Amino acid sequence: MTDAPSSTESTDRTVTLPIAVVSLLAVVLSAIPLLLLDPQADDGFAVFAAVAGVPMLASAVVILIVSRTVGSSRRFSPRALWWVLVVMPLGILACSVPTILGNAEYFEAETAGGFIGTLALMLGIIVFAMALGGLVWFFGLFPLDMVVRLVERRVRGERISAGMFVVPLVFLALGAVIVIGGLSLDGLAPGRIAGGQILGALLGIPGTYDVAWPAGLWIVRILVAALLLALVVPAILRRARTRGRAPSGETAPQD
């Protein structure tokens, strides 16, 4: 009678512990730039990395942990999520308080209303970044985890076809295109016009966009070409094999 509860508690700990570690580590990593670096340097990059970049990555890692737990049919208690949903954002927000107070003029927090408004803005950025962690997981950690699992199965001696690596690699390439493309181009117009600007940049057509990172744009072009080849070449090969086969009802002519 006591084996089942103890097994359940052990399973909960194996899930809760890594989520807690990731959440607390995110708070520590955010505290370093918030408390030690100049928040005004590089247009506030340190603050942005602390309140947006770190929670976004931490959220993606937690989603990966939860997905692997659910995928392995292990019991998962939603109570474990309070570490990432409550402890992490409030911990990062608490670390930002000394930074805001020490640079009240920069953050426009010289009054009580301004201070509360800045805190609310910080919290909003943290929550939004955590939501974007789902995209980081989907285009980054999820396909990378698929590749790792396929390699593990290959090492164990299982037969793994090369085609099984195509889907996760395509997702990784798409994620890289989105990130590197965003860093490579600047001055894009809002709305649908941006699509034409991006296409023009990929084709090298001059336009109203600005190339902030020429090398990154070439990386995007190579990745897009590789994606197109990965989608088109297999289809062409399948069609060629189909045409090369003789219809089943036909027989070779006899003398």
Automatic annotation (TrEMBL):
- Transmembrane residues, as ranges? 15-36, 48-68, 80-101, 113-139, 160-183, 218-237
For whether the record's keyword set contains Membrane, the answer is: yes
- Record's keyword terms, sorted: Membrane, Transmembrane, Transmembrane helix
- UniProt-recorded name of the protein: Uncharacterized protein
